[in-house]
Amino acid sequence: MNTRAIRAGGCVVGGGDFVVIAGPCAVESETQIMRTAEAVALRGARILRGGAFKPRTSPYSFQGLGEEGLRLLRKAGRAFGLPVVTEVMSDTLVDIVAEYADILQIGSRSMENYVLLDAVARSGKPILMKRGMTSTVEEYAAAAQFVMEHGNRNIILCERGIRTFGTATRNTCDIVAVPLLQAMTGLPVILDPSHATGRRDLIPPLACAAAAIGADGLIVEVHPDPERALSDGEQSLTFDQFENMMAGLERYLQGQSRAPACAAVG
Fold it and tell me: Taking a C-beta distance cutoff of 8 angstroms, is the pair 213, 184 a contact?
């Protein structure tokens, strides 16, 4: 299904292309984010992701570098020709995040934070909205409609798995929600196999399933050394694993007369 084309920083999500967003869960250092940006750009990613403000369940976990992380993320994106997306956690942070990011991410915990949704809508920036971890498809679509009613129609939806009684994976991937949401909203819908599974070995097969079902793209976590990552290392791909995933995706997309759109590295 051809969904609405959302333009962000020279990249288009939706409208028939399959776009891969990749990068670390959190920006940890300049070396880490620069190495990752170069690696994912060379392997076909179109947009760079990375967290500067991290909503962690444990107060003892790494909380991000804040504005310094935003600065480093933008620097890495510009160095390798990639627009950047990062999460904004509070309406008080919208202006500072919008100064650095091309796309503002609404995390799963914030999907029904209507004060925040109003603020990001008024920013005028494209929005990547993740599904709430206990939200129905109808509730998710309603949250997107709230943003549109507040003046911003540039929304990318992201299925990232929901909480169920299952414990074998971090979440349960509701993959049929992808074409369902596309039909309900007309918006581009991407899949997050990193959070849906919580396991790097399950990311490539789920990524291929996303391509096969007609998703508009993926957002995946990639790290130079996942075993030493400060957050979500167990669900982060190495550079070689990311390259192998992209090669596997190409076979599925070519069968649909689609191909992963590759960025030129500057």
Answer: no
Closest Cα to residue 173, out of 205, 127, 141? 205
Q: Which residues contact 14 (CB under 8 A, 6 or more apart)?
A: 2, 3, 4, 5, 6, 156, 187, 188, 216
Structural domains of the chain, ranges and CATH numbers in brackets: 6-53+64-254 (3.20.20.70)
Which run of H or of E encompasses 74? helix 67-79
Q: How far is CA 174 from CA 11, 122, 135, 142, in A?
A: 27, 30, 11, 18
d(CA 198, CA 28): 20
- Measured CA to CA, the distance from residue 142 to residue 248 in angstroms comes to 34
Nearest C-alpha neighbor of 89 from the set 66, 70, 107: 107
Tens digits of residue pLDDT in 81-136: 999 999 999 999 999 999 999 999 999 999 999 999 999 999 999 999 999 999 99
**What is the H or E stretch that residue 207 is in?**
helix 203-213
Residue with tokens 């990249």: 11
Question: CA-CA distance, 265 to 138, in Å (whole number)?
Answer: 39
List pLDDT tens digits, range 187-239: 999 999 999 999 999 999 999 999 999 999 999 999 999 999 998 999 999 99
Q: Which residues contact 239 (CB under 8 A, 6 or more apart)?
A: 39, 40, 43, 222, 224
Instruction: Give the DSSP letter of residue 103.
Output: E
Q: What is the pTM of this model?
A: 0.93
pLDDT digits (tens, 9 = 90+) for 40-72: 999 999 999 999 986 655 554 556 689 999 999
